[in-house]
Structure formats: C-alpha cells, structure tokens
Amino acid sequence: MTTINQAHVALVTGGSRGLGFALTRELVQRGWHVIVDARDGERLRAVVGALPPESVTAVPGDVADPDHRRALGAAVENAGGLDLLVNNASILGASPQPRLADYPLDVLGEVFAVNTLAPLGLLQLVLPHLEKRTGRIISVSSDAAVEAYEGWGGYGSAKAALDHLTAVLAAEQPSLRIYSFDPGDMATDLQQQAFPGEDVSDRAAPETVVPAVLRLIESDLPSGRYRAADLTVAP
Q1: Which one of 103, 149, 155, 226 is the catalytic residue?
Q2: Nearest C-alpha neighbor of 133 from the set 4, 9, 5, 2
Q3: Of 27, 75, 104, 138, which residue is the least packed, with the fewest Cβ within 10 Å?
Q4: Per residue of the chain (235 residues), what is the pLDDT tens digit?
Q5: d(CA 212, CA 209)
Q6: Is the pTM of this model over 0.90?
C-alpha cells in the first residue's frame, strides 16, 4: 500500500453530511488529506467522489465498532501521521426524544457508545500520532450538554460526558490543543430527527459554522470549550 505524503492529515468522523462534510471539503481545498468515515457507506462514497481522490480516504463504518476504529487507525498509519482529530460522528437516539423517566436504557447505551465512548476509543488509538505532530483534537458538543432542555436528557448527558472527557484529556495532554466545540443549531439531519415534522431550514447551514472550526485549527487558542458564536467574533 502506498503511503500518503501530504503536509497535514485530518481524521473527521461522521463526514458524509452536515458539518463533517462541510469541514472535510474545506480542509481538502486548503491542501489537507482527510480520512473520513460514516455509517452510510454508499452516501460517503458518493459525497467524497466529488473531491480529489488523492486528498480523501473514505472508511465506511460505525465509530462504536472497535474493528472500524482499528481500520481508521490503519488509515492514519498509511497517511504517515495525524495532525487533527475531529470527533463529529453523533447519534440522537430515540426520536421523538423521550423524557428520561421513559428513556429505553438500551437506546441510551447506544447514544453513549457513539457520542462518548467511541471518541475516547479512537483517541486512544491515534494519540501517539497526534503527540508526534503536536496535533489538535476537536470534539463536537452541543448546548444540550450544559443546558437542561426537557427531552434532551439522553443526547445532552452523553455530550456532557464527552465535554468532561475532553477537559480531562486537555489536563493530561498539555502539549496538545484539545477542544470541545458547540456549533449551535444547524440545519442537519440530526436536527430534523430532534424535531420531526418541523421545518428546520431556518437553522444555520453547516458551511457557515466551518470558519469557527478553522479558528480552533489555525489559531493558538488554549484548550477548552468554545461556542461557534464566540469564535466568529473578531478577536
């Protein structure tokens, strides 16, 4: 297998749609090689087909699957290293979202497996590569991680746990830049699942949030939790 030799390498999970794909496309345009995954392999192959093939490695699969995470680790090895990990893949859980008193625990376990445990499992695999390049980690969070919205207890608690894991990782890995990123409401499939039957087109397009992510990638902000609304304000 031929080893990729490009200046910057990113791994973006959940990259077949929404913010994940918008960021992948922007990084490719800036000369990065992006390793990208998604559960829907057919859709993933279709969307990355519009990008230069030498700039993208598509690895279909579910981040909650340890075998798939190992495949992503192998792709990082083949790319020669890693500069950026973006934990973007998420699931909402039950839709419409139930109250916690009625939340099926098996479904809640799936939400935590994808939204909380998988990012940590993936980080454990690729951390040596990030350490070699003094890389960055961005975990996509939500305002539901810090606000007590009725009906958001499952998704919100999983994202709150991810926030805390991210903060502890930042304390344990001071040589890296490690961020939780709250993108705000976006017009995405996940947002539509959260509000079935409603028109969510008034939410921000994912492309408009990408500049805020780039602030975390390209500037030297200290590790921490950031909102897109704050990052889009000129420093």
Answers
A1: 155
A2: 9
A3: 104
A4: 344 445 799 999 999 989 999 999 999 999 999 999 999 999 999 999 989 999 999 999 999 999 999 999 999 999 999 999 999 999 988 888 899 999 999 999 999 999 999 999 999 999 999 999 999 999 999 999 999 999 889 999 999 999 999 999 999 999 999 999 999 876 566 767 666 776 667 767 889 999 999 999 999 999 999 999 999 754 4
A5: 6
A6: yes
